[in-house]
Amino acid sequence: MRLVVARCSVDYTGRLTAHLPLAPRLLIVKADGSVLVHSDGGGYKPLNWMSPPCTLTTSRRDDAEAESDPEGDWIEQWDVVHDKSGDRLRVRSHEVLEDSSHELGVDPGLQKDGVEAHLQAPLAENIETLGDGWSLVRREYFTAIGPVDILARDENGGTVAIEIKRRGEIDGVERLTRYLDLLNRDPLLAPVRGIFAAQAIKPQAKVLAGDRGIDCVTLDYDALRGIDDAESRLF
């Protein structure tokens, strides 16, 4: 990866046109061919960029050419052309403040924590979190339309189907509704009630769940893993 901090202007031409006037910016050239233009604000998104496949060529000019150029005293120009669309990103650097290259190697990828599978295991191991006398029947209980995350029995021996999401939205409630319709056809399980469990549940999902007789439970992931003792907290 090449990192260049330079006072530069940037022009994009192709399906649209865009211009960035002269200012200090961070230019990133990745090993996959991507070229990104960043400022010191505006969040994580680049001001402009070119995605691969593309070709980068650089050119410099001497003092005589600079004096006769109405666009000012730029010293180096990058032309980045997309191989398929022909779109062009042109960067003209007037002053290079920093230029370095780094070999990053192969990235192992993002490892997410707190996804549905990570929530399911500790909840199954601590099913009594949902109530005293509860017991686990099975994780990933198979049905003809897909697996129910957790099938459990409450303190009265009633069957409970639990759908787990990291963020609880309407589609999760719809999925659980379909599971309940199917499970309640089995005389060995019926009646089956549902619990929609998530770390955060949107208000619209709570309303829909309540309308369909489904209980909502907000999960504390750290407490389930034993990292955080919710009872000892002041707030």
Element layout with pairings:
Elements: E1 2-13, E2 18-29, E3 35-38, E4 48-50, E5 54-60, H1 63-68, E6 76-82, E7 88-101, H2 116-125, E8 135-141, E9 148-153, E10 159-168, H3 170-183, E11 192-201, H4 203-211, E12 215-218, H5 221-224
Parallel strand pairs: 10-11, 11-12
Antiparallel strand pairs: 1-2, 1-7, 2-3, 3-4, 5-6, 6-7, 8-9, 9-10
Write up this protein.
This protein is 18% helix and 41% strand. The radius of gyration is 29 Å and the shape is elongated. The strands form 2 sheets. A 7-stranded antiparallel β-sheet has the order 4-3-2-1-7-6-5, with no helix packed on it. It starts with a strand and ends in an 11-residue tail after the last helix. By secondary structure, it is of the alpha+beta class. The protein contains 5 helices and 12 strands.
Gross morphology: elongated
Alpha carbon gap, first and last residue: 45 Å
Task: Tally the helices.
Answer: 5
Indicate the low-confidence ranges by residue numbers: none
Quick structural summary:
The protein is of the alpha+beta class and 235 residues long. It contains five helices and twelve strands.
